Amino acid sequence: MRLIVENLACRRSGRRIFSGLGFTLEAGEALTVTGRNGAGKSSLLAMLAGRLKPDAGAIRVEETGEATLTECLHVVGHRDGLKGALTAEENLTFARDILGAPTASPCEAMAAMGLAHALNLPVGYLSAGQRRRVALARLLVCRRPLWLLDEPTAALDTASQGVLAGLMARHRAEGGLVVAATHMPIGLDHARELRIGLPAATEDAAEAEAWA
Amino acid sequence: MIRVLAALVRRDLVLASRVGGSGALSLVFFLMIVALVPFALGPDLNLLSRIGPAILWLSAVLATLIGLDRIFQADEEDGSLDLMTASPAPLELVVLAKVLAHWLTTGLPLALASPLFGLLVALSPTAMGATALTLLVGTPALTFVGAVGAALTASIRRGGLILAIVVLPLMIPTLIFGVSAVDSALGGTVPFVTPLIILGALSLIAAVVGTLAAAAALRWSE
């Protein structure tokens, strides 16, 4: 699959966050999105995930057959989509049923994340890092070509960061795409980098005038 | 499609049984209101049995509001809703499954428990049966109408009060036909079936319109 983003602009609560953003991602490529706090990294991922409407610009996918963008992607972000009262296995089984295209079983996915022992524990009992690993295990229970990761290594220990780097490398070798918003290196080799900077100064002035 | 529907309903039922959330709470609330009325009106059994069906229906409408605000808000907060929108199944199906599960844990117990609570307001056996049947047919309409409000207020903190204000006026038709169906079962010029059929129609209309509207509200709220 190919992901094409053209001239994307983001506006939240009336304020322009970024504009003129564009990139093309081919199969097997990865993109790290960097920028200061509040630069719009999470907003960019939310737009790619279809949860936020772009102010301008377009997001397209090619070579995916009939599937739309939202049917091609996995999201792992700050809101992990796990229910504390359900066990890890129930959470993963639910994700598998909902997302379709199942691959690994919840048991295998948890084993790959080194959490096989926690399979039948309610997710609410797990630590922040373990919880994040359960959310990452979701990447493995269904096959989806585009992974959107928002600070995927937050709360992860060094060993788990290595596991995640291995998973991402394997995913890319199979033709998958990774877009990760991060502040630190997360072990993506030959990743392209997109740095979201401040909006253009002229625009800021125009904006200030509009507000005045 | 069916697998997604089944997975959603199963998950919400398991969650409701483990967290012990709104289902039991709304049943207790229902009992509270029904129990309060005789204290307010005094021990006039004739009066109570005459207005009993109306009390039960009014209590049921109010009890439906309990927990309604959490249908979508809980999933919006922890990101589960993002997971559901990424599903190949349309959002309407997700809404339908969630509302169905909510009705199974709140509306259905209300309808089943209403004959028991009818004792508190001195209902005759016929009136108990009629009230239970009308609640069984009518509560889906209440839940589906409520779901629209729940979807609109999903991203608002403490949206429960706004939800009640938005949703209660829309529940009036169901209330009218629910109570009038019970009244006609206890004698009157209109046969029992006529208002009951209209009540069923209201539920079906609410199921269609409510599902579409709630899904649209969830999409629009981003």
TrEMBL record, chain A:
Keyword Nucleotide-binding carried by entry: yes
GO molecular function, one term: ATP binding
BP terms from Gene Ontology: cytochrome complex assembly
UniProt-listed InterPro entries: AAA+_ATPase (IPR003593), ABC_transporter-like_ATP-bd (IPR003439), ABC_transporter-like_CS (IPR017871), ABC_transptr_haem_export_CcmA (IPR005895), P-loop_NTPase (IPR027417)
PANTHER family in UniProt: ABC TRANSPORTER I FAMILY MEMBER 1 (PTHR43499:SF1)
Family designation: Belongs to the ABC transporter superfamily.
Name this polypeptide is given: Cytochrome c biogenesis ATP-binding export protein CcmA
Organism: Methylobacterium haplocladii
From TrEMBL, chain B:
Subcellular location: Cell inner membrane
Main location: membrane
Entry function: Required for the export of heme to the periplasm for the biogenesis of c-type cytochromes.
Residues passing through the membrane, by range: 21-42, 54-72, 132-154, 161-180, 192-218
Record-given protein name: Heme exporter protein B
Source organism of this protein record: Methylobacterium haplocladii
Pfam families: CcmB
NCBIfam families: ccmB
Annotated family: Belongs to the CcmB/CycW/HelB family.
Record's bilayer topology term: Multi-pass membrane protein
Single GO BP term: cytochrome complex assembly
